[in-house]
Structure formats: C-alpha cells, structure tokens
TrEMBL record:
Domain Pili assembly chaperone C-terminal: 165-228
Domain Pili assembly chaperone N-terminal: 28-139
Name of the protein in its database record: Molecular chaperone
Alphabetical list of InterPro entries matching this protein: Ig-like_fold (IPR013783), PapD-like_sf (IPR008962), Periplasmic_pilus_chap (IPR050643), Pili_assmbl_chap_C_dom_sf (IPR036316), Pili_assmbl_chaperone_bac (IPR001829), Pili_assmbl_chaperone_C (IPR016148), Pili_assmbl_chaperone_N (IPR016147)
Pfam family, one: PapD_N
BP-aspect Gene Ontology terms: cell wall organization
Family, as annotated: Belongs to the periplasmic pilus chaperone family.
Chief location bin: periplasm
Keyword Magnesium: no
Taxonomy, superkingdom: Bacteria
Length: 239
C-alpha cells in the first residue's frame, strides 16, 4: 500500500513540476506536557510557518489510545491562518473535569498543514499532517525521573516473554529497545517505539532469543523530547 502511494505521488510530481507544500511546526517543542499543578486550565502553543507563502493550519486533538469518547480539551483557534515566515499562538483549554487526577492522560495534537492556492499554474498541493504527543499532567506525588526508576522488567518462561511493569502515574515512551542475552549479545529484533500507560503491564515476546534475555537497552523520551539511554536487568522469573 505504501509503495503504491509513493509511486502515485511520484507520478503526480512528474505531471506537476511545481510542488506547493507548507511547513508548519510547534516552536521549541516535539511533544507537549499540559501541567495543571496550580489549577491552571490552559496552555499556550506557538506555531511557526517556515514557508514563503501563507498557510492554513487545521488544529485538532484526539485520544492517544484512539478511544471514541468526548475529549475535555478544546482548541482556541481550530483554523489558523499564518503568514509566510511568521508564527501565531493558540491555546489549549481543559474544562476542569473529565480527566483522572491520579495519573497522566494521553492525547495527540494534530496540525493539518494546508497550503493556500499557489500562484503558479499546474502546481501540486499536498496537505501534511503533523502529530505531537500531548500529555495532560495533574499534580502528582512523584517526578518523571522517579517513574523511570520504578519501571521493572520480569521474565515469564511459560510464555517465552518479558513483562514490562509501569507502576507509576506517568506515560513512559520507550524507543529503540534492544534485548541482550547473558553474554551481552544482541538477540531478536529491536522495538522502535512503545508507550507504557500508567499503572499498566505489557508483555513482550522474547523474539527468537535462543537464551534467556538478561538485559534490556532502550531510550526513555523526556518531557523535552530528548532520548536518554537506559540499561535494565530482567528480573527473576514469573511462573
């Protein structure tokens, strides 16, 4: 399917030599943490248009786990016109109820990048959608660093798998997870990306590791979007 889409786009570009694509991004952010420690119910976001022409941004929020429930967050300007090489601000509002106060909630902020009608004829226009992780964070008893420290991994021989246990109120984003055997050798395929929900467990297959997995190497994504490398020992077996 992806190959078909790429081939189709390539053919369209050949037919339309002028390509009109806007370039929008959040200023200074690769993810958003909506902190509500002091009763604040809004957060400001700056959106930049790096293109040389006016752009129209369509902005929306959806649940990160794709649930089909009403969202207690609202965007101040769902449609936003941004002049060339300038930026504008929006605000996200929380209505004050509808989200748990003992854990984070996970959303996706969508910015649909729709260029205006180009001046050149026969120009191909592509609407690009940018997606940013958005976490609503109430006042919690522990810090994100403490949550990373509490993350545990245990072996389940009966299922030939490993169980990840996140006992914290935070969503933990993990990238580039690598399994290692008792000799420290890499085994199986790496996991590019996974998200552990608060107070949850997730089972990972041993993925054709011929010896028990002894250690896991992975990155934890921080609030700023930085990836910090971690090494964790797989704990005693769960029968």
């Amino acid at each position: 399917m992806i190959k078909v889409l790429i081939n189709t786009m390539f053919a369209l570009v050949l037919l339309n030599p002028v390509l009109a694509v806007a370039d929008l991004s959040l200023v200074g952010k690769s993810r958003i943490v909506f902190e509500n420690e002091g009763g604040g119910s809004r957060v400001r976001l700056d959106i930049s248009n790096q293109h040389a022409r006016l752009s129209l941004a369509s902005i929306s929020v959806e649940w990160g786990d794709q649930r089909q429930e009403d969202i207690p967050l609202a965007v101040s300007s769902p449609l936003l016109t941004i002049p060339a090489e300038q930026q504008k601000s929006i605000e996200l509002f929380y209505q004050g109820q509808g989200l748990p106060e003992d854990r984070e909630s996970y959303f996706l902020l969508n910015i649909l990048d729709v260029p205006t009608v180009p001046q050149q004829e026969n120009a191909l226009q592509i609407a690009l959608r940018h997606r940013y992780k958005l976490f609503y964070r109430p006042k919690l008893e522990m810090t994100p660093d403490q949550a990373v420290y509490l993350l545990a991994w245990q072996r389940i021989p009966a299922q030939d798998s490993i169980e990840a246990d996140n006992p914290s109120p935070y969503y933990l984003t993990i990238t580039n997870l690598i399994r290692r055997d008792p000799q420290g050798r890499r085994c199986g395929n790496s996991i590019a990306h996974m998200v552990l929900a608060p107070f949850s467990k997730k089972t990972l297959a041993s993925d054709n590791c011929f010896e028990p997995v002894k250690e896991l190497q992975y990155n934890i994504v921080t609030d700023s979007g930085r990836e910090v490398e971690q090494h964790s020992q797989v704990q005693s077996e769960i029968e």
